Amino acid sequence: THKRFMVTYRRHKMQSQNFMLVEDPLSLDRIRSVLTRLEDTIIFSLIERAQFAHNPRIYQRGIFKELNDLGFTGSWLEWFLKETETFHGKFLYRVPCAKARRYTSPDEYPFTSPSDLPKPVLPPLSFPNILYPNNVNANPSILSFYTRAIVPRITRRATLTLSTLKRANGIVGDDEFEDDGNYGSAATIDVEVVQAISKRVHYGLRLPVLI
After folding, report:
1. Of the four listed, 75, 93, 163, 195, which is most buried by Cβ atoms within 10 Å?
2. pTM score
3. CA end-to-end span of the chain, whole Å?
């Protein structure tokens, strides 16, 4: 796996993702390079997430009293996404939100509603108008499919290993399955995965201008 990563890196490292630094941001070589790197990011992040148990509590809304006390009624993962996106920042659909203007980039969409994000500290960059305009945001479907279908499958081995260890220590019943308590570590990786998937999906959605 590491060898494949290094080969991919060497092959594509000269193709920048920066729209501002390339003469032809829609060249096929550049698009191929960006998509390959995004796929590698997704794969390696999924491998990291598989090291932890399922931890289904972090995907259930309203279950953490600590978040309820803060006035947040979403899930642990949704809170992680909101806090991350609050800093990274964006002008989504020309609506100002968040602090570091990450989402001024035309190929990035936040999972948090723009109305729940603060105004940015920095002014927006002026990106070249090269992508096909659309208002499709697939993030709700991405998040739902990831938490319901992908996470339970990739964490199955870690979850079964956890239950074996718990039974050996006399913990049986509902408490022996699924939860290893690593909510912060699991959610941190989840954020990386869903943001990479989102960028990969929306990058493809805006390419019909090439046709």
Report:
1. 195
2. 0.75
3. 35
